[in-house]
Amino acid sequence: MNKKDNIDAIEEKNDEKIKSNGESDANDSKVNENVTENADPKEQVLRIIAEFDNYKKRTKKDIDNAKIIGKAELIKNLLPIIDEFDLALMSLSQMQDKLVIKGIELLYSNFISQLRKEGLEETDSDGVFDPYKHEIVISKQSSEPYGTIIEVVKKGYMFNGIMLRPASVIISDGNGNKKDEKGTESENKAETNKKNS
């Protein structure tokens, strides 16, 4: 037997397998058709109505999720503007024109209240560092326990449970008291060594 005969034999076996698979698929589809043909027309209609109702619910849920994600992306893009408003409000104390100050404060409060109506929330930045809500910028010496938030550098925001941006915070490294105690102990030892000499 040469190579050509081997190839022909393999092709024939593959053709037979394809034909047998096609026949079994045809038999399966005939069984499914017989089941649906033999089913009561009322049951068929009820099944179709239920499938369509499920389709409508699924589609509505997908559309609602797409709307929420779209709003979240839009609001995420507005966060730098909110940050700039915060900076402007902090520098208002240096301005003399009361009408301009009042106008900027009113504009900011209207802008934020509208975003809150849509679902924007500030993340809680009091207390202890939470890796799901905060981002550590730096840790500083403090008398507070380790992980306590000392200062918020940039506010964090959520939208309908979606984290838009974690709050950038400065936390305590918890070494404030320990270093002070060590410093005073070493100073006391140095003083006693001087007295003894």
Explain how this protein is built:
It is built from 4 helices and 6 strands. The strands form 2 sheets. The chain has a 3-stranded antiparallel beta sheet. Strands 2-6-3 form a 3-stranded mixed beta sheet, with no helix packed on it. The chain has 197 residues and is an alpha+beta fold. The model is unreliable at 179-197 (pLDDT under 50). It is elongated. The chain has 2 domains: 49-118; 122-197, Nucleotide Exchange Factor Grpe, Chain A, domain 2 (Roll), CATH 2.30.22.10. It has helices spanning 3-38, 41-91, 98-118, 176-196; strands spanning 120-122, 134-140, 149-154, 157-159, 162-165, 167-172.
Q: CATH first level of the largest domain: which class?
A: Mainly Beta
Query: Roughly what is the average pLDDT, rounded to an integer?
Result: 78
Uncertain stretches of 5 or more adjacent residues:
179-197
Looking across the biggest beta sheet, what order are the strands in? 1-4-5
The tally of domains stands at 2
What name does CATH use for the topology of the largest domain? Nucleotide Exchange Factor Grpe, Chain A, domain 2
Percent of sequence in beta strands:
5-15%
* Quaternary structure annotation: single chain
Q: Percent range for helical residues? A: 55-70%
CATH superfamily of the largest domain: Head domain of nucleotide exchange factor GrpE
Spatial extent as radius of gyration: 36 Å
Q: What is the strand tally? A: 6
Distance N to C terminus: 108 Å
* Shape category: elongated
Number of helices: 4
What structural class do the secondary elements suggest?
alpha+beta
H and E string? HHHEEEEEEH
Largest sheet: 3 strands, antiparallel
* CATH architecture assignment name of the largest domain: Roll
